[in-house]
Amino acid sequence: MSARSAAFTTCRPNLPGLLSAPLKKTNRPEIPRKAIYRLSIYLRCLLRLKQNSIRTVSSEALARAARVKSTQLRKDLTYFGQFGTRGLGYDVEQLSKMISDVLRTTSLQPVILVGVGNLGLALLSYLGFEQEGFEIIAAFDIDTQRKRNKQLSQPIYSMDRLRQIVTERGVKMAIVTVPAAVAQEVTNTLVECGITGILNFAPIVLQVPDDVIVNDVNLAIELENLSYFIQQ
């Protein structure tokens, strides 16, 4: 095993049965992933309304701001049960709180980042995460002593500290900004250490158990998508 591989398998080197782990059941309502994404958009629209001292909003107005159909918005909000008042619309403060509760952004959630290269540095330096309810509490890299061109407030640990930090701080989410060649190894290690939500910037499809959620961010794919549509 190479030194690089060893560094990324500190929790356990082999994960037999990783992909056949049972799906964990929760008491929360089952909301489709696309609907969760739209709820995040609604929440940001509502926060802008609050900043402008607007107390109520109709489904049509909120749908226009979120760029969805009003029927879609009303369907998404049925996950909260009967909500809103006919003729008056939605209470902005109340709806914001209900969505925040569902998304669990009412208090800061701890997040870790693995891979402190240029992209990792940029994400660690971004100040907007805390405003959205997330705090990157620590970063991990195989070369903690490498000179970096930015001063960071977060500590950079070696991978052998991963399980300890995840356990002590109750971390469930991680950002992966490592090269594609080691991204699956890193993911296996994160899952074994208790991470259940991964934001993946590596250009690779990660294999994870059913009870682990991966959101991929591939900028090249997004540019390809734009390239197609601007030529129509």
Could you describe the 3D structure shown?
It contains ten helices and eight strands. The protein has 232 residues and is an alpha/beta fold. The protein is globular and about 60 Å long. 42% of the residues lie in helices and 13% in strands. It folds into two domains: 33-103, Winged helix-like DNA-binding domain superfamily/Winged helix DNA-binding domain (Arc Repressor Mutant, subunit A); 107-228, Rossmann fold, CATH 3.40.50. Mean pLDDT is 84; it is low at 12-26. The N and C termini lie far apart (50 Å).
Topology, number of strands: 8
The average pLDDT is 84
Number of helices: 10
CATH homology group of the largest domain: NAD(P)-binding Rossmann-like Domain
Beta-strand share of residues:
5-15%
CATH topology of the largest domain: Rossmann fold
Give a quick account of the main beta sheet: strands, pairing sense, barrel closure: 6 strands, parallel
Highest-level CATH class of the largest domain: Alpha Beta
Estimate nothing, just give the exact number of structural domains.
2
Overall spatial form? globular
Order of neighbouring strands in the sheet with most strands: 5-4-3-6-7-8
Give me the strand/helix succession.
HHEHHEHEHHEEHEHEEH
Distance from first to last alpha carbon: 50 Å
Topology at a glance:
Blueprint: H1 3-7, H2 33-51, E1 56-57, H3 59-66, H4 70-77, E2 90-91, H5 92-103, E3 109-114, H6 118-125, H7 128-131, E4 134-140, E5 156-157, H8 162-169, E6 173-176, H9 180-192, E7 197-200, E8 213-216, H10 219-230
Parallel strand pairs: 3-4, 3-6, 4-5, 6-7, 7-8
Antiparallel strand pairs: 1-2
Helix pairs in contact: 2-3, 2-5, 3-4
